[in-house]
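Budget justification, computational time. The allocation requested in the original proposal was used primarily to generate C-alpha cells for proteins on the priority list. As evidence of use, we reproduce two of the resulting records. The first is shown immediately below.
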Amino acid sequence: MTSLDPAVVAAIVARLADADAERALRHPGDSGERQPVHTCYVPAGRIADDTPRAWGAAALALLDQHGPGPVPQGILPRVLRKLGREPVEDLRIDFEDGYGAPEDAVEDADAVRTARSAVAWRSSHGAPPWFGLRVKSFDTPALRDRSIRTLDLFLTALLEATGGGLPEGFVVTFPKVTHVAQVDIFAQLLSLLEGQLGLPDGAVRIELQVETAQAVLDAEGRLALPRLITAGAGRVSGLHFGTYDYTAALGLGAADQHLGHDACDFARHVMQLAAAQTGVRVSDGSSNVLPVGDRRAVVAAWRSHFTLVQRSLSHGFYQGWDLHPGQLVTRYAAGFTFYRAGFAAEAARLRNYLTQSGGQVADEPATAQAMSRSFLRALECGAADAAELTRLTGLDVEELTALSRRESLPHRRRLA
C-alpha cells in the first residue's frame, strides 16, 4: 500500500518534462567518438602538400640524431610506428598569431593554396583524420574583415577541389573570444556561407579558443563559457586553451607563463565544467619550449613537454597543442606511457566490476565507463592494439565500446 495518489504524483512529476527536454538538448553526453591527441598548428605560409608526412619525417630525424631522450625503451617502437603511420592526428592551418599580417594579396593566395594542399593530404598515406584552419579574431573591424575573407576563400577553394563535399574532420578554430556576440555573429556567417556553397546548415564545426579573461568570466561576473557554447548554435565541438595569451592577459610575467601555473588550472577546470556532458571536447594548450638546438637543449625540451603532456592527461585533458615536429615524439611517448602504466590496475578493477567479485575498490558504473573509455583511447592513438586489450580486460572492442556508453554488453554476459 502507498500513501500518495498516483494521479497527483504524475501531475507533479509531469512538470519536469521541460527540464528533461532542456537537459537532453544541452547535455547529451560525450559521443564516444575518437578524439585527436593533439592539434598541430602550422603557419599558413609554411603549408605544403606533404606537411603531415614532413612533420613525421622531421620527428624521426630528431630521434635518429639525438636518441630517445625521455622516451622509455619499451615505448619507443610504438612511437616509431606512429610517426611512420600517422604522424599528425589533427592539423590546423594557422592564419592568426603564427602567420602574422601579410599583405591581403598574400593571404588571399595562401587561403586558396592551403585549401588545395589540405585536399592533397586527404589522398595520401597517413593523412590527418582531422584538419582545418584558424582564422583571425574578431577583435577589430580590420581583423574581422580579413578573417571572414580568408574563411570564404578557403572554404570555396576546398569545395572546388573536392567537387562540393566537405571532408570529414574539418573544423574552424575561432581565437581570442571576448564576447558572446562574436560567437553568435560567426555562427551566422557560417550559416550564410554554407547556404552559398550548398552545404547543410551546421556542417562547419567550430572550436573556441579560451585565451582571454573574458572567455572565462564575463563583464557581469558570470561564467562565460556556457553562453559562448550556446551562441555557437550547435556548431561548437571543442574548447581549446590558449596558454600564453591567457596568462599574459592576467598579468603574469614571462617566467610564469606556462601550462603548469595555477591560473591555467583554474581556467581549465572552468572549461571542464562548462563542457561536461555537452558533447564539447576540451583541449589543453601548448608548450613554447621547442626541441631545437644541440642534443642537450632538445632532450631538455622533450623532458619538459613529456611532463606537461602527462600532467594534462592526469587532469582529464586528452588533447593539446603541438607547435613543432619534435613535439610529436613526446606527445606520443607521454601518452602511450600514461595509458599503459594504468593497464594492469584498471583491467583488474574492470574485471572485478563486471564479475561483481569485489576487490579493494568498489567501483561505480560511471567509473567502469571511464575505464573502458580509457582503454579505447589507448587503442585509438596507438598505445595498444585490440588483441592486447581483450587479453587484459576479457572484452573485445565492441564490448568495451558498449560499456563506455553505459549500454548492455552486446553479445556477451558479464564476465564469468
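The second record produced under the same allocation is shown here.
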Amino acid sequence: MATVLIGIDAGGSKTEFLGGPGSAISSVQRHAGANLQLVGLDETTRVLLQGIRGIVEDLSSIPIEAVSICAGIAGVESDDDAVAVRDSVMDRVNRSDILNDSAPVHVEILHDSIIAMEAAFGEGSGGVLILGTGSVVLLRRNDGHLLRGGGWGRLIGDDGSGYSLGRAGLHAVASAIDSAEQTLLRTLVASEFGIRDKSHLIQRVYREGWPLQSAADVVLTAAEAGDETALSVVRENVDALADQVARLASRAGTDIERRYALFGGLITNEWYSGKVEQALSTRAPGWRRVEPAHADPAGGAFVRAGRNADTLILKSG
C-alpha cells in the first residue's frame, strides 16, 4: 500500500501533473490550461480531474492507501477561490470512480506563484518571477510573510508576460501597417501567421479570438535581431517587471535573502531571460539570480503534497 502524491501546476496555457508513490515521480500528465479567472470553476475542476484520473490510472498496479494533492492554480486570488476549487475537486472525486471509497484524500489549492516559491527555495526566503502567458512576482521574507505584485491579468497587467509582449508587438505591427512601414517585426508576423494587412489582423484577433501570446516568440526573434520597434516592446516590459520587483523588495526590507528564480515558458528564451536579469540588476541592485531547486513549479507542488501527506483527511460519503 502506498500514499500517492500529485503535484499540479495550472497556468493559462497548460496544466502539468506530476504523480507517484512516495517521493518517486513516475507519472506525468499535461492538459489544457486552467486559469480560474479565465475558464471558471467548472472547467478548472474538469481539467484537474482529468489529470488526477490519468495519474491514478498510470499507477493502477499500486494499491493506493491515500492521496495527497497540491495544486497551484493561476487565478486563485483569495481564500474563497481556493476553498471553492478544493470543495469542487473533492466533490467530483467523491462522486467518481477515480479512487476506492476507503482511500483518504487531501487537497490543497494555492496560487501558482506559491508552488513556484516552493520549487525555488523550499520554505526559505527569496523571490520568484513567473513569466508565461501571464506574469506575477512573489517575495517571501524570512518570517514567511508573502509580498505579491503583478498578476492583474492580461487586460490591465501582466508586464513581461507572453500576452503583454504579443499584444504590444501586434499594436506595433498595426502602426506599421497604418504608416506603410516595413519593419522586421511586421515581416515576421506576416510570414509566421499570414497576417499581411489590416483585414487579416482584425479577423485573426476579433473574429477568430487568436491568442495574442502566440506572437510573443516572433516579437523576441525580431528584437534579438535588432528590430528597434520590437526592442522597445521588450525594454518597456522588462523595465516594468523590474520596477515591480524593486517596489516589493523595498517593502520587504532586509528581512529577506536577496535571491530570485525565474519560471515560465518565456524563460526558455535565454536572450529574453538575460534582458530580465539585466533590468533587475539595474532596478533591484544586490539581488542575484539562482537556479531553482526544482525545474518547474509542478515539482514544488509535488514536494509540498509530500509534506501534507501526514495531514490527510478522510473522504466524506
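A brief technical remark on that second record: The longest strand covers residues 64-73.
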